[in-house]
Amino acid sequence: MDPTTAPAAALDAADPLAGFRDRFAVDDVPGAPLAYLDGNSLGRPPRRTLERLRHLHETGWAVDLIRGWDRWQHLPTEVGDALGAAVLGAAPGQVVVADSTSVLLFKALHAALALRPGRTRLVASAGDFPTDRYLVEAVAARSGGEVRWLRPDPAEGLGADEVVAAVDERTAAVLLSHVDYRSAALADLRAVTAGAHAAGAVVVWDLSHSAGAVPLALDADGVDLAVGCTYKYLCAGPGAPAFLFAAARHHEQLDNVVPGWFGADDVFAMAGEWVPAAGIRRMVSGTPPVPGLVAVDEGVRLVGEAGTDRIREKSVALTSRAVARLDTVARPHGWRLASPRDADRRGSHVVVGGPGAREVEQRMRARGVLADFRHPDLVRLGLSPLTTSFAELDAALDVVEAALGGSG
Fold first, then answer.
1. Is 314 a catalytic residue?
2. By the number of CB atoms within 10 A of the CB, which of 7, 33, 181, 213 ranks highest?
């Protein structure tokens, strides 16, 4: 069945993931939008997550009180292992869930520099997410190093050859997003990693727009370090803690620039000096955010049950349908596709750009379609395979067409 032309009802009826939509708070929520195309910024809440959080507060906290830490103290690594297995393609003992994406990126970049003493150059993309750019500049400045900026094509992103050509004997690390937050351009993770390794550098991957939407195989692809948020396709809720992956081969040299008591060898010894824990737990710093960890755990369970291969298959179908329709409705208004046309090079959102983009996004919002405006002239349509139906997408695209024409 061709996802670009088949009726939405037929596609939804044949969708093996269709039943997952009912496991999220979607259609029966008062004031629910007509269509939600912003799951690449904040996923919908799973019903089971809401139940587990209620139980955590009413029983785990209210009844167990301090005794709850007998269980909670292990959540950063337990949830990390589950995330590694279900989402990242990572063996146990290499992932922790803690802190925000920004904090974990800061830690990962410092750790990367420490892994390559004597090298002072960082390579990064000038088109990357602001936090990534700000942090790589700050880390380089603090370490007396420099940044070599790559300038990707706004719609197509960076090719592996461009990245590898920028890496030399002075390069300590490359920081790159797997999926471009603006265009959804999908980088060749394996080729970039292998190319950087050939020059003796390490790679730090930002997986925020791919974790839970694009199959990953961090161990098989030889990834060194990776971070990512959990509130997008993993649906862990606003401000949920991020994850950090560090390959086991680096653990003995892994340096945590923010040493805290929960990364210590004996958490409750209250030792006079910080002795890092063995393995990945040394990268934890402060007290774990328990409600967020519970929410991450449930989101990971859902993604694991659905399977990232099936999720990716539906993602490609949804984005391909959106591209085909936008080709028809956007071009007459002077708009362009600002994402890769090749589905194999595209993540799970589709971007169009053109005149009056902010006003178009506001007209869509007024008609009940939630999407994203991105400076200067882009509108992002985020398609979350576990919750976005083909019928919902069609309803949204009808509104996009009207908004581009000035109505709504």
1. no
2. 213
CATH topology of domain 8-45+307-404: Aspartate Aminotransferase, domain 1 (3.90.1150)
Phi and psi angles of residue 285, each rounded to the nearest 5 degrees, phi first = -115, -80
One of 107, 232, 321, 367 is an active-site residue; which one? Answer: 232
129 is catalytic: yes
Q: Could you say which of 20, 106, 129, 181 is catalytic?
A: 129
Q: Please, are residues 251 and 281 in contact by the beta-carbon 8 Å criterion?
A: no
Boundaries of CATH 3.90.1150.10 in the chain? 8-45+307-404
Q: Which of 106, 181, 380, 394 is catalytic?
A: 380
Question: Which one of the listed residues 38, 99, 206, 297 is annotated catalytic?
Answer: 206
Query: For residues 69 and 60, what is the distance between their CA atoms, to the nearest angstrom?
Result: 10
134 catalytically annotated: no
Q: Which amino acid is at 5?
A: T
Is-catalytic flag, 36? no
Size of the chain, expressed as the number of residues it contains: 408
pLDDT means over runs of 10, the chain (408 residues): 96 98 86 91 96 94 93 97 98 98 98 96 97 97 95 93 96 98 97 98 98 98 98 98 98 96 90 92 97 98 98 98 95 94 97 96 96 95 97 97 82
Q: What is the CATH number of domain 73-305?
A: 3.40.640.10
The pTM assigned to this predicted structure is 0.96
Whether 233 is catalytic: no
Annotated catalytic residue, options 24, 231, 243, 390: 231
Cite the DSSP H helix spans in 257-371.
Answer: 290-306, 308-329, 357-366
In the chain, where does the domain assigned CATH 3.40.640.10 lie?
73-305
